[in-house]
Amino acid sequence: MCQNCPQPQGFLAELIDSGLLIDTGVDGLYGRSGLFEEVIARFDDLITRHGGQDGAEIVRFPPAMSRKHFEKSGYLKSFPQLAGTVHSFAGDERAHAQLLHNVADGVDWTDGQISTEVVLTPAACYPLYPVVAKRGPLKTEGALFDLQSYCFRHEPSKDPARMQLFRMREYVRFGTPEQVTEFRATWLDRGQAMMASLGVPLNLDVANDPFFGRAGRMLANNQRDQRLKFELLIPIESEEKPTACLSFNYHQDHFGTTWGIETAAGETAHTACVGFGMERVALALFKHHGYDVERWPASVRNVLWP
Amino acid sequence: MCQNCPQPQGFLAELIDSGLLIDTGVDGLYGRSGLFEEVIARFDDLITRHGGQDGAEIVRFPPAMSRKHFEKSGYLKSFPQLAGTVHSFAGDERAHAQLLHNVADGVDWTDGQISTEVVLTPAACYPLYPVVAKRGPLKTEGALFDLQSYCFRHEPSKDPARMQLFRMREYVRFGTPEQVTEFRATWLDRGQAMMASLGVPLNLDVANDPFFGRAGRMLANNQRDQRLKFELLIPIESEEKPTACLSFNYHQDHFGTTWGIETAAGETAHTACVGFGMERVALALFKHHGYDVERWPASVRNVLWP
To answer: I want to staple A264 with a disulfide (CB 3.0 to 4.6 A). Which of A111, A140, A214, B252 is the partner?
Structure first.
């Protein structure tokens, strides 16, 4: 244990002391206890109980995606600072010997790593769009998918609700603007009802995404002005700055145009998604109901363990 | 769809045609269907039924680990070619503009990415050892952990059983040499019985890990000669070269020495693990019982859906 390193404080320290999260020495990267995972699984099941009757196609991607697809997605325009590319060693035995010397000497050995064909998934739906595009035009009723994966965002933080690696569950809707906005409206209601049943304080607001740079400020203004993305906020690390735990995002034709996805009528498809921050919701539950799940309110326990 | 690209063939093509796996354009990186995930979940549950009574502490790590811990682990000595480091953009707006130009022009834009504090997890147990070390000496009875995570190995392949990102479940035992070798002996029996109940052809052999370079050949010989690692092999992509689906690995005092883990008596702890390749077992089941799980042998269905 590093005696000179700053030790975690506040809610993060409590989570680590209680054993729910396990310190790895990297801010935003934690092991999870069996109990923490149980709460995640129960919330995952709750989502399915609210959304499972819609007939979504279940797809699960690993936590990385094709770099080519990522480049095409437009993510690098908005959030270059959050992306994580995966690099690998491709040298010979001599280069390997040098690498090991550098590791032993504490010298940066990662210079020689070259980028692979994959990047870490920034949001659960990013690998989906090229897959849907490849299938050809949508059916008349559009399409609906159920996703979950670990996602990466390079934003090291002492706020336990801002992890570098976290799970996002998503439903993603493809179709006409009417189909897609109806989906989002349905989930705006459902999501609020679902989270209210968990007995946590809620607040719906337009999103405030961390777009990069000056050009990014215009994108952020546009997102707010057009009310393209809403977030369901719950106070976790701070009362003043509550944490977005669910988001409801209308992409308009952004992904439809990017990937050439068409409706049955030959129009560019619109898309929308509802995203669930799995760790954030679990943290909100521990924050507001305590570390002993046996002592959570009966109403909340009945919802999660029906 | 790329008309000029080589299309998947054989078992991989069948898996993609059946919808169980979803092509992402990158060899070894696939989406999974709901049915594929259901089989993984059923096998995960089967493992718990065989190992759950041992009182293992459940820990779940995200698919990346601390780079410092990874450097110390010794993995780079043996398998530098398989590791994946995670890199991020840390430039200003001018660098961002250049990055976007490079992406648009098809020029490599990843040169400017700098390594973060994390690397992708190479095996589920790697993040665990420093955590156990930090807790201090083991109790008299040693320690036992239950892990599962996505793991990364940079070995692009058309063999569906050789994925770049796959899940590994593990039980990891810490203790005296006697405690640890008894654990491995128990799981050698259990693992074979468990897999035999799934009606797939099995073969136990000493492991044949892809150690890097000429020095690596010595490590591989040592591993074989000392019978440190056994693998339970099932033919999947090839009859002649069956695939390791479970492994039983006695690390001796390698991790105990590396991390300074001590037994209650103050000796260097020994460790062993049993690892389950989740995707490989699911693929073996589809290979030997077909794509329609409703038509799998009743004996196998009864084991997986008790």
So the answer is: A140
